[in-house]
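Weekly structure sync - notes
Attendees: PM, LS, DV (DV joined late)
Agenda: review two folding runs queued last week.

Item 1: First target. Sequence and structure tokens pasted below for the record.
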Amino acid sequence: MCAGILFQDKLLDVGFGVLTNLVRSGKKLNSINEIYVSHTHSDHIGDFTAVVWAMAMDNRTKRVRVVSSASTADVLKNILELQSTPRSWLKFDIVFVRPEDVGVKHVTTMHEPENLAYRFETDRGGFVYVGDTARSEKIAEFAKGCDLMIHDAMFLDGQESLAAVTHHSTARDAGSAAKVARARRLVLTHISPGNEGAEKRYLTQASAAFDGRIVLAKDLQTLTV
């Protein structure tokens, strides 16, 4: 599962297939003002250039802000150049900024390369997006008291060695993080393609650690915060 979440006027990660899903959803690209990128693995940035080009084809003129770590920003700039993005064709500015520049809380997760988790505050509570991470007490502390927590849950029980070597979490790890954070709801995301069809196992293993509401992320799914 490649990453891409639309929250208000923000797009969180732009993995392969995100542009297609945005078009299928009927969402106007001009309504997206910020793109938050967690890290540089292709399943999180594969559609970055495609989204930029699609915005240009929609005759966008207002700037788009790209929020990420400094190292991720450098990679994204290089990708635009390597994929021969015609700068003279773009009628809008792409501004690369750090999370602290826009007042968004963030924390570095347990992952290689550097991955940022983001927290957004709403009238109903916090929304936390955790892209790729191994199990981490720091993440649970960062998400304390949030209403909605979207957390990497790539693997299942018995696949802990894979989770360790790839710096990902199991469904049970995600449930444990949500429990410690006292989150109200948990969304399991980044499911391994090799575990397709195991939805019940994911929900059962996460619920063994967390007794709040748990859902498994799906394309074009709508959740409220």
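Item 2: Second target, run right after the first with the same settings.
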Amino acid sequence: MKKRILFVCVHNSARSQMAEAFCNQLGGDQFRAESAGLEPGKLNPQVVKVMQEVGIDISGNECNSVFDFFKQGRSYSYLITVCDQNAAERCPVFPGLVIDGRLHWSFKDPSSFTGDEKEILEKTREVRDEIKQQIMEFMENIL
């Protein structure tokens, strides 16, 4: 049976979307990931671009509400929050059933990046690569 993972951040527009995509791509036979936010926003266009660079299309993804998932009675093996330290106090909590554990991984928020398009994309790529690495380590440890 697949382990169900919920990745959560404030807007579900960047970090949690990348984590969900990598988890489903890399662990598709062992894991089933979803993502949600406290205040669902709009998908970050730079995140869509940098994910396309590694062959993952998230352009059709919706930004989900953690409260909608809770109301639907969903349960998860793991809940993983991916907010940075600056947003830690606003990082959402999923009040539903979490069986194996709640984890926090701190990643910088791509929506806070400044500079020209090239600089923003470079910083977003760094976060993307950090998230992928964290997902791979997590899967190794669980399996």
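Discussion on item 2: The domain at 3-142 is CATH 3.40.50.2300 (Rossmann fold).
Action: LS to circulate a short write-up before next sync.
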